[in-house]
Amino acid sequence: MEAQEEYIKAGKIAAKVREQIRGEVKPGVKAIDICERVENLTRQLGGGIAFPCNVDINQVAAHYVSPVGDQTTIQQGQMVKVDLGVHVDGYIADTAVTICLDPALTQMVKAAEEALAIAIKMVKAGARASDIGATIEHTIKNRGFRPIRNLTGHKMSRYIVHAGRSIPNVAGYELHRLEEDEIYAIEPFTVLNNAVGEVRDGPPSNIYRWERKKNLEGVPKQMIAFIQQEYRTLPFASRWVLKRFPGPEGVSAFSDLLSSRCIMGYPQLLEKTGGSVAQAEHTVIVQKDGCLVTTS
Ligand code: MN
Ligand code: MN
Q1: Could you point out which of 14, 118, 142, 264 has its C-alpha 20 to 30 Å from the C-alpha of 108?
Q2: What domains sit in the chain, N to C, each tagged with a CATH number?
Q3: From CA 110, how far away is CA 94, in angstroms rounded?
Q4: Residue 65 near residue 237 (C-beta atoms within 8 A)
Q5: Cα(170) to centroid of ligand 1, in Å?
Q6: pTM across the whole model
Q7: What is the CA radius of gyration of the chain?
Q8: 119-173: per-residue pLDDT in tens?
Q9: Residue 84 C-alpha to ligand 2 middle, in angstroms?
Q10: Which ligand sits nearest to residue 83's alpha carbon?
């Protein structure tokens, strides 16, 4: 297949960074230091950053990224998901780990990890995405937890994190079959049985993406050129851009880009009932008789 080597290289880097950070997430550590550590490690290992490192705490299921000067600090009793993306020449690996600082919720993390492992065993050319979703739901419910129904795994392609097709975490969706050489991230999320198991849009996440070109002048013009060249169609953090364009001028240019809709922001995704969320995620290449897990 095309670019298999790049996908494998991105996966190896992502796995190394994930395993390194797993041991570093502890009470007292700042979220922004986790984000920057993951981003720096990725570069040191020769990878590009496919999207800003997410540090999603408790009921935040996805999309929390530290802004400039973030004081958020990890605390005992929290459920912390670190979700990171690496690319090599645009070919992406997406993986996540949950660090559970609440001993009472360890089994919930295990349920997500187990559902992921069982889902991966089902992946091969011709497998139905809906069957995989049903198995994920069944596995999680069997262990006494619930999946989040409106978050899914997703197909990826070059410089594109969400390339249309998805792999659901529940039964009843998606009739398509997986095809050889497709790349998917599979990511079950678990919540306690008394949570609703859905996410809603929360406050801004500090994750953005390029949206459209417009005639701009001055700093906003330089900023949008920088964004397009540096990140293309990949999501980026406001923190990165404001490092390059420091001071009030940068802040004002950034809000100009937002209000003129040259860039758009993603919301944080919060569990609707405020329940703690666990996640496990790997990236796979679909093969004839199975799959290759790039991030294991
Ligand atoms: Mn992810
Ligand atoms: Mn993903």
Answers
A1: 14
A2: 4-201+270-293 (3.90.230.10), 204-268 (1.10.10.10)
A3: 19
A4: yes
A5: 18
A6: 0.96
A7: 19
A8: 999 999 999 999 999 999 999 999 999 999 999 999 999 999 999 899 999 998 7
A9: 9
A10: 1
